[in-house]
Amino acid sequence: MAATAEGPALFNPGEGTRGIPEAIFIENVEAICQHRKPADVVQKLQELYSKYQYMQSSLAAQRASLKAKLPDIVSALETVNHLVERKAEAAEGETAEYTYQLCENIWCKAEAPPSATVCLWLGANCMLEYTLEEAVELLRTNEANARTSLKGLDEDIAFLRDQITTTEVNIARTHNYGVKLRQKRTEEESASAQAIASPAPSVPAASREAKSSGEAAAAGAGTGAYTWKQEAEEVEVSVRMPKGGQKSDVKVTILVDSLRVEHAGTVLLEGALRHKCSPNGSTWTMTGSRVEVTLEKAAQEPWESLFAED
């Protein structure tokens, strides 16, 4: 795996076909994330994924266009071969009868003497006259080139599918690793806080201290108590579960501007968020007797409080 100043590369730019970069399967996600944050790696992978998707749509359009032209080339070649046969069989001065398409669904018959030349459409309103032998050679060459190009496009599209699949797997594994890191950090901070716990200060002092440090504890809208804290890119919310609560009974609803945590139909926490979050980048899990929710900020700005009404 090639390396860059930011760490191991995520693709090989020169080892694909037709200049298509080859995606590298990330075997050791931890090693990749030693040099960059998991979120940054996911962003780079998503950019690569978007490029692959664009390449795939472009190649698919080329393939569809080529498949539409190939029958016309084959039909033209058959027609010219027929003219060659008629010319060889016709006696001097003899005319031949032809059936041609006058317009859609209307065909007519015409008589014409054998000809040694034929006119072919080359596209862009351009028609050239060729001898029958030249026309046959040209059309055979065009047919062979079209079939070769079609085969190459099929191979490129299949190669792209493999790269897209590899990139999707890399994105999922890196994202999951980032979630595990956040969960581990939350557990360590929780354990550290319990180890150095001291008598709780009065309510006003606790409120001032929570606001100054970016953390808060409150009863919340519902029956469960919660705590929250924030970092530059995310907000972490910890909700206390009822005694004996099971993860299967927990339902967490994360919307752009609201959060709702339920247990067995009972709302533990609910409210309109102070600022918007990104639901796609937000996750939740259950650790011990608490539900840990990680909200990805839609904008990297400090939150004065978790909920708008606080």
From TrEMBL:
Matches recorded under InterPro entries: CS_dom, HSP20-like_chaperone, PFD3, Prefoldin, Prefoldin_subunit_alpha
Key words of the record: Chaperone
Positions of the UniProt region annotated as Disordered: 190-223
Highest taxon of the lineage: Eukaryota
Statement: the UniProt record of this protein carries the keyword Chaperone: yes
GO biological process: microtubule-based process; protein folding; tubulin complex assembly
Domain CS: 221-307
One GO CC annotation: prefoldin complex
Gene3D superfamilies reported for this sequence: 1.10.287.370, 2.60.40.790
Pfam family, one: CS
GO function terms (MF aspect): tubulin binding
Entries under CDD domains matching the protein: p23_NUDC_like, Prefoldin_3
Compositional bias of kind Low complexity: 191-220
PANTHER family: PREFOLDIN SUBUNIT 3
Family: Belongs to the prefoldin subunit alpha family.
Designated name of the protein: CS domain-containing protein
Organism: Alexandrium monilatum
